[in-house]
Amino acid sequence: MANIAAQRIKREFREVVTSEEVQRCAIKLELVNDSFTELRGEIGGPPDTPYEGANYVLEIKVPETYPFNPPKVRFVTKIWHPNISSVTGAICLDILKDQWAAAMTLRTVLLSLQALLAAAEPDDPQDAVVARQYKEKNDLFRLTARHWGAAYAGGPDRNSDFENKIRRLLDMGVEEHKARVALSSYDWDLERATEQLFS
Amino acid sequence: MATSSGSEPGPSREGEENKEKDERMFECNICLDTARDAVVSMCGHLFCWPCLHQWLDTRPNRQVCPVCKAVISKDKVIPLYGRGSGKQEDPRNKVPPRPPGHRTEPENTNGFPGFGFGDGGFQMSFGIGAFPFSFFTSSFNFGEPRPNPAPVGTPQFGEEQFLSRVFLYIACVFILWLLLA
Ligand SMILES: [Zn+2]
Ligand SMILES: [Zn+2]
């Protein structure tokens, strides 16, 4: 059966590489090893979202039972999104779980993830902290997501206000990513973030 | 006429592209290869039978079409028999046999009695039933005579004699057939 998996990935790989989405730089697929069991995906942030202009790298692991079971996909690039863990990059998306169908391909998975960036499902969250912010302070959520895109995914607009707060924590000896997570989680309230970091 | 090799690359390449497109139309939606032991679901999606079987086995609680997620089941798929199919059976194919096609015989509108095979069967049973009756009544005449026995010598009498001999002959043939079969 592993033979089907490898055979199919080969075909899919060819399909993605020649697809028009690649020419628009929207999705990308690369082989990590020769056995077609691990690939590296890349998706561009959709327009009119906080992720616009940023590029997100994905780790794709193809199980032996593919395509009867879904590939295991995870964000390598850190991202602020209700359905993606800001810690591990784990994704909460139905088609990667029980809604998977054998006719889906890596191309449709990448496009679905892109669609997920454009339309979050805060009621079915992977990251509860992000989901709460998304629902209660959506403007702040959008600024935070854009800031993370600039910090980790080559996106524009780092947001000087957020940068200054991070620098304050760096001066106190806090590691940059830790500082960003603490501030993001406490809605950029420097006092509460500091309290949490030093408690 | 000389074959113009390479003088017209345009049309031939187009033809090849079309051919590739045609072939892709018959790709299995699961393995993306040309469908072998092809079956089509009620929603019209094409698969290899081994591929679809494995998909349905992987998710016994969620029997849906891998393409459109319509509800499907193993006994509601239609096998596709192309010309020359069924010749090469893959011996590695250890999944249950592909479900058979459902076919209904067309309504019998045969206008010539005694022409088809079915009518032959009817004649046989008629022969058995009629033989003893006519044999006993016309040859031995024991028991009650028939209501209107035809007088000897009339054409009707001869006809009846002939008929009973025909029945006797049919019966003999039938018994012979029973013994041989
Ligand atoms: Zn197949
Ligand atoms: Zn279907």
UniProtKB/TrEMBL annotation, chain A:
Gene3D superfamilies: DNA helicase RuvA subunit, C-terminal domain (1.10.8.10), Ubiquitin Conjugating Enzyme (3.10.110.10). Keywords: ATP-binding, Nucleotide-binding, Transferase, Ubl conjugation pathway. The active site is at residue 92. The keyword ATP-binding applies. Its EC number is 2.3.2.23. One of its GO terms (molecular function) is ATP binding. Residues 4-154 form the UBC core domain. PROSITE patterns: UBA, UBC_1, UBC_2. Residues 159-199 form the UBA domain. The keyword Transferase applies. InterPro entries: UBA, UBA-like_sf, UBC, UBCD4_UBA, UBQ-conjugating_AS, UBQ-conjugating_enzyme/RWD. Belongs to the ubiquitin-conjugating enzyme family. This is E2 ubiquitin-conjugating enzyme. It comes from Cloeon dipterum.
TrEMBL record, chain B:
The keyword Cytoplasm does not apply. One of its GO terms (molecular function) is ubiquitin protein ligase activity. GO terms for biological process: ubiquitin-dependent protein catabolic process. Keywords: Membrane, Metal-binding, Transferase, Transmembrane, Transmembrane helix, Ubl conjugation pathway, Zinc, Zinc-finger. It is an enzyme of class 2 (transferase). Its EC number is 2.3.2.27. GO terms for cellular component: endoplasmic reticulum. It catalyses: S-ubiquitinyl-[E2 ubiquitin-conjugating enzyme]-L-cysteine + [acceptor protein]-L-lysine = [E2 ubiquitin-conjugating enzyme]-L-cysteine + N(6)-ubiquitinyl-[acceptor protein]-L-lysine. Its main location: membrane. Residues 1-20, 80-109 are annotated as: Disordered. Residues 28-69 form the RING-type domain. It holds the Pfam family zf-C3HC4. Residues 1-10 have a biased composition (Low complexity). The keyword Zinc-finger applies. The chain crosses the membrane at residues 124-142, 162-180. It is found in: Endomembrane system. This is RING-type E3 ubiquitin transferase. It comes from Cloeon dipterum. The lineage of its organism: Eukaryota, Metazoa, Ecdysozoa, Arthropoda, Hexapoda.
